[in-house]
Amino acid sequence: MLSKIFRVFGIRTKPMVPLSAHDIVTRSRHASKTIEWSRNKRLTIYNPPFWGIHHLFIDPDLHHALIALKEDGNSFVFYGNSQGAERWEKYDANLNMCDCGIVENQALTWLIYEDYVIYNGAMLPATNAPYHWGRVIDNQPFYASINEKWASQGISEIRELAPSYSES
Prior knowledge:
alpha+beta; 9-stranded antiparallel beta sheet; 5 helices
C-alpha cells in the first residue's frame, strides 16, 4: 500500500530483497537442474556487504568452497555441499591457516541460482530482510578438486585477480 502511494508521487522504493518468497518457491522446482548447472563452476558474487566480492567454487563432485578475502589480508574459506557450509578455515595474509572449525547444522546455508545466491543461517549478521543475498556477476569453468590442500591455491588465484589484497 505504501509503495503505491510513493509511486503516485514519483518515488520508487527499492525492494529489500531481489527474490520474493514466491520466486524462491518457483525456482526450487528446478533445484536439481540448477545444482547440475553449477557443477564445475567458479562463481564470482557481489554482496552481501560483509563479504563484498567473494567466490564460490563447485568441483566435479559438487564439493563447494566459498572464499572471502578481507581487506587486512586474511581469508575465510567455507567448505560444504549444495545446501551450505560444513566447516570453515581462516588464513592469514601469508596463507597460514590460523583457525578452523565446524559449522553447526544449518548455521550457514546457501541456495545457488544462475543469477543470485541466497545466504541464511545463524553465522550471518542479523538483518530485517528474510535472507542475505549476492548477485552472480561472473561464472567461469572450474575443474580442480576441492580438498584440504586446495585452499591456499584458490586464495592465491583470487589475490592475483585483486592485487590490492596482496599488497598488505
